[in-house]
Amino acid sequence: MSPADVVRLSKRLSYVLRHRPDSAGLTLDAAGWVDVDDVLVALGLTRAQLDEVVAGNDKRRFALDDAGTRIRASQGHSVPVDLGYAPARPPAELFHGTVERFLPQILVEGLRPGARHAVHLSPDVRTARAVGARRGPPVVLRVDAAAMAADGVAFSRSANGVWLVDAVPAEHLTVL
Ligand code: HQG
Q1: Using a 6 Å cutoff on CB, does residue 109 contact ligand 1?
Q2: Which of 12, 34, 53, 92 has the smallest number of Cβ neighbours within 10 A?
Q3: Within this chain, do residues 67 and 14 fall inside the same structural domain, yes or no?
Q4: Ligand 1 pocket test: which of 15, 111, 139, 157 has the largest number of ligand atoms within 8 Å of its C-beta?
């Protein structure tokens, strides 16, 4: 497949596995998994094409199970799933990329998950900047994860390295 085809298929797969499995006639299990064979039929793909999308994905958005028979998105869902990631101790600082226009609200109410299950935090400034840049000139916030962890807030980390938390209070944010 051409690089453009891989990106196009990755977007379709993200949409189906995170937001609208029903749009392809699929149903996710409680942890977000679906049989690869069902995905191939529903999206009209060969196994080789699917493997190319999974392997070639810039952010490793998709995970196959150990047997290679089921697939799920590693994070980013808006449909109810329990991904089952264990609580993990975060690094002292994490980062969140956003844009200027959201700042006034964020600095009052903190970070909220919006349509997704969790607030997504990045392990480094560069990644956070790229996340923010999807929406415009990026603004990066530093999250005092150490203070939140000390407050008893549970963090987890997705299979593709995104830190997930229910919310971040404004007092633990600093604009970089
Ligand atoms: C903002 C992509 C106003 C928040 C990325 C963000 C990431 C608030 C937007 C992943 C707010 C939500 C997630 C508040 C947060 N008031 N705005 N209180 N709290 N926001 O897309 O973090 O390519 O749901 O700053 O790389 O941008 O999909 O979250 O701008 O990892 O794999 O509300 O999505 O990964 O937007 O991105 P999103 P996000 P994928």
Answers
A1: yes
A2: 92
A3: yes
A4: 111
DSSP string, 45-70: --HHHHHHHHHH-TT--EEE-TTSSE
Which CATH number does the domain housing residue 38 bear? Answer: 1.10.10.970
Kindly provide the ipTM of the predicted complex, given to two decimals: 0.94
Q: What is the residue range of 150's domain?
A: 93-175
Are 108 and 169 contained in the same domain?
yes
- Give 30-47 pLDDT, tens digit per residue: 999 999 999 999 999 999
Same domain (yes/no): 104, 66: no
Q: What is the pLDDT of residue 97?
A: 97
Q: What is the value of pTM for the model shown?
A: 0.88
Question: How are strands ordered across the β-sheet holding 34-35?
Answer: 34-35, 70-73, 62-64
Residue type, 12: R
Cα(165) to centroid(ligand 1), Å:
12
Ligand 1 centroid to residue 67 C-alpha, Å: 32
Q: Are 88 and 39 in contact, with CB atoms under 8 Å apart?
A: no
